[in-house]
Amino acid sequence: MATTTTGDRVSGATDASAPKSLRETAYNELRKRIVNLQLTPGQRLIERDLAAELQVSRIPLREALHLLQTDGLVVIVPRRGAIVAPFGVDEVRDLFDVRESLEVLAARLAAQRADDSHLTALRDQLAAARAATARDDKPAIAAANAAFHAVIVDMSGNPLLQSMLQPLATRVQWLFHLTKERDPGQQCDEHAELYDAIAAGDADHAAEIAYRHVASGREPSLELAEHWSAPAIDPVEATRTRQRTPRRKERSGNEEA
Question: Region (Disordered) spans which residues (predicted)?
Fold first, then answer.
C-alpha cells in the first residue's frame, strides 16, 4: 500500500528509507495489536518503546505508522507523535454509512460472478465462524466474519470497488473485535443466508440480505461504541507529553504497552 507525502507525517520518514521487510514487520505487528485491542482507541504510541519492542529502528517504525494512518488506525501529529485512532461513535456511524452502500453492491456482483473457488472460501469462513462460536473464541469469530466479507469483495470482480473497500477492510475487522459481544450465532445465521443467495446466483436477494445484515449491526454497534469509546481526545494534547493516554476506568490496572 503506497503512502503519501503530506505534511502530516512524522518528520524524517521516507518511503524507501528502510528495507520493506522491516517496515512490513512493524506494520503487521502494530496492526494486529490495534485490531485485537492490545492497543486501544486513543492510546498514545511511544516511538522509542515500540522500536525497542519490535526490534526495529525509528525509520521503519515511522513508515509503518504512516501505513497505519492510511488504514485509519493511527493519527499522527507532526513533530509530536501518534495515537491509536479514536474509533468512537461518529467513526462507527460513518463506517456503517459506507458499508450499507458498497458491501451491498459487492454482494450483488458476487452473486452474479460466483465461482466454485470463491464459494468454497465462503463456506470455509462460515465453518470457521461456527467452530469459533462453539468454543466462544471471540477473536477467532471476529477474524472469520471479517474474512467472510473480504471474500465477497474479492468475488465481486470489480477492481474499482475492491480498491474502494480495501482500505476499509482493517477497520471492519477492528469493528468486529470491538463489537464481539454481539450475538455470534445470529451473525453466523445471517452470513449463511447471504451465502445461500450468492451461491444461488440471486443478485437481488443477495443485495437485500447484505443490506439487512449490515444495517442490523448499526444500532448495536453504536450502543457498544458508547462503552468502548474514550472521552473526546485531542490528538495534539494527547501527544503533548511522553505519557500514554490514560485508559477508561474499567481498563485501568491492566496497563499494556
Answer: 227-257
Please check whether residue 146 is in contact with residue 132, taking contact to mean a CB–CB distance below 8 angstroms.
no
Integer Cα distance of 148 and 154 in angstroms: 10
pLDDT in tens, 212-224: 999 998 998 888 8
Where exactly does CATH 1.20.120.530 map onto the chain? 89-228
CA dihedral (120, 204, 219, 232) positive or negative: positive
CATH fold of 89-228: Four Helix Bundle (Hemerythrin (Met), subunit A) (1.20.120)
**Structural class in CATH, domain 22-85:** mainly alpha
Residue 15: per-residue pLDDT: 44
Q: Give span(s): CATH 1.10.10.10, the chain.
A: 22-85
Contacts of 68 by beta carbon, 8 Å cutoff, 6+ apart: 27, 30, 31, 34, 74
From 73-77, 230-234, 246-250, the region with the lowest mean pLDDT: 246-250
